[in-house]
Amino acid sequence: MREISYRHVRCFLEIARLQSVGQAAEALAVSQPAVSKTLRELEDRLGVKLFERAGRRLRLTAEGAVFQAHAGLSLLELQRGVRALSAGARIGQRIEVGVLPTVATDLMPRAALTFAERMPGVTLTITTGPNWLLLAQLRDGALDLVIGRLAAPAAMAGLVFEQLYVEAVVAVVRAGHPLTADPARALTGFPLIMPPAGAIIRPVVEQYFLSIGQEPPRGFAETVAQAVGRGLLTRSDAVWFISRGVVADDLAAGVLVELDLPGLPIPGPVGLTQRGGDAPAPLLAEVMRAIRDSVAR
């Protein structure tokens, strides 16, 4: 096999991240033909197709997904080596963590404060997003750790998951909502806020409606963002299906109320996901310890 260069790997990872040759060219500040040529060279040297068309976007093939897992890690290690040789650089003084919105409101703030007390001077960068995006960024090396839900086996290839807890999906309304006085009243007639398509809890909500003999509804809004959902609920009679962790503080404060809907399924475990391979670096291990301790409290 002919040699693969840094240019090939960087180009491939940008296309995989953005699902577009044109957008990858913009991100890399090169022409679109140059990106297309680099991708063709890489596929020729590997002897496999890395992407396939999915509408107007590009999607990784099975071979592409395997290569992404290793390419992201190799690029990350190369970047760490460059930083280690920089004058005055201190290795491992920044940890990048991706968290689901359900984790961002309670668990992650407590864990971040615990980590800051134990490891002063280290920056903890925290980003939120859907589970699929966080896992893709973890593979690419943009994130060091993800706190999210256990994905399907194919999406977890090359990754290691450690369960922290199991979290339920709930239906919540504002305090004083008509359904709080009449819990047996049907949801029909009330506007619904659903998890977005692609959210890992969306099938759970759809399964609930099918189990009670109804077609999965189309909500008037779709979100898993706490601020957006809270704003919609407090200004309307809407019902929001969301992970309990996202609204835990509002439920405790009495701003929102959980409806008793028997049969609403539990979507599965929430935990730590990291790249497979060697044991985590010391700083990352400290972040994980702070998260575990925060769950235990």
UniProtKB/TrEMBL annotation:
Stored Gene3D superfamilies: Periplasmic binding protein-like II (3.40.190.10), Winged helix-like DNA-binding domain superfamily/Winged helix DNA-binding domain (1.10.10.10)
Domain HTH lysR-type: 4-61
Organism of provenance: Amaricoccus solimangrovi
This protein's GO CC annotations: cytosol
Protein name per UniProt: Pca operon transcription factor PcaQ
GO MF, any single term: DNA-binding transcription factor activity
UniProt cross-references to InterPro entries, sorted A to Z: HTH-type_LysR_regulators, LysR_HTH_N, LysR_subst-bd, TF_PcaQ, WH-like_DNA-bd_sf, WH_DNA-bd_sf
Keyword Secreted among UniProt keywords: no
Database matches in Pfam families: HTH_1, LysR_substrate
Highest taxon of the lineage: Bacteria
GO BP, sorted A to Z: 3,4-dihydroxybenzoate catabolic process; positive regulation of DNA-templated transcription
Keyword tags: DNA-binding, Transcription, Transcription regulation
Stretch forming the signal peptide: none
Protein family according to the UniProt entry: Belongs to the LysR transcriptional regulatory family.
Keyword Acyltransferase: no
